[in-house]
Amino acid sequence: MSVSRAHYEELLRARVFEREAFSRALTNRQRRSPQGSDGNLLLVASDHTARGKITLGSNPVAMADRYTLLDNLTRVLASPDVDGVLGSADVLEELAWLGALENKLAIGTMNRGGIIGASWELDDRLTSYDVDHVESMGLDGGKTLLRIDYSDPAVARTLETVASLTTQLADRKLLSMIEPLPYIKDAEGKASLNPSDDALITVVAIASGIGSSSAYTWLKVPASDRMQEVAGATTLPILMLGGDPSAGVDPIFEKWEKGMTEPNVRGLLAGRTLLYPPDGDIEAATSRAAQIVRPPN
Fold first, then answer.
1. Which residues neighbour 188 within 8 Å (Cβ) at sequence distance 6 or greater?
2. DSSP string spanning 226-287?
3. Element holding 148 (H helix, E strand)
4. Residue span of the structural domain in which 187 resides
5. pLDDT (mean) for 70-87
6. Is the dihedral angle over the CA atoms 84, 9, 134, 210 positive or is it negative?
7. Which of 32-41, 46-55, 106-115, 152-161 comes out lowest in average pLDDT?
8. How many domains does the chain have?
9. Are 45 and 270 in contact (CB under 8 A)?
10. pLDDT, tens digit (0-9, with 9 covering 90-100), for 6-43
11. CA pair distance 252, 135, nearest whole angstrom
């Protein structure tokens, strides 16, 4: 499945003249059980643009073109081995309108206020879905980003927000997908990902204790060379993310394959590796990821 230019132009027209069609398509879509039959999941992530993440490698606007993004997403979701998608309201509604979310999980991203590069980046406030709309729009859960830096007092507000959202989602028996990441700030105050495995293990432990119930919580974490220790810091189900594939995808896939040997690592929540593979072969990248999540007999 792909999106023709004519169909995309119909979507643009519907944005003006048939506004209710988008939310109707999302709420009326055919749904499925969240964990499936085997408890493993392959989800595609597409919430980057909502916080201004549109770069890829050396191209500062690689992910900005919405037609290309929707076309790539529908191609990934066309695979029966892909269980669903994570996205902001605009992306999920457009995919539903295009018919790409039938019998797929839809996870709504929630706190996108930490715009990449902003001075307030780690004060990551609720700017996309709230819990009420995750429920009323027929979504299967909500995702929060939890970036922890010990020098920024704004992180305390983000911790409190993620805890509250996790509790509210659990109260409604909806999936809470938390993405805990260790961050550090340089001398100029710019925040960046801390590559330390020890730091990753620490934030996984912290995220495990977030909220008044962990019954519906899954974690989204980077694949690590020390995945046994990372996964060993929690009993919660884990989905591994990838990262920027510009330098090549083989190291990412190798880490995924190794990580899947841990008993509470239940699959992948991958974005750019599937949507923008360096060779452009989206179907091959998706098939390769699917075989890692559900190896052929």
1. none
2. THHHHHHT-SS-EEEE----TT-SHHHHHHHHHHTTSTTEEEEEESHHHHS-TT--HHHHHH
3. strand 141-148
4. 5-293
5. 97
6. positive
7. 32-41
8. 1
9. yes
10. 999 999 999 999 999 999 999 999 998 887 779 999 99
11. 34
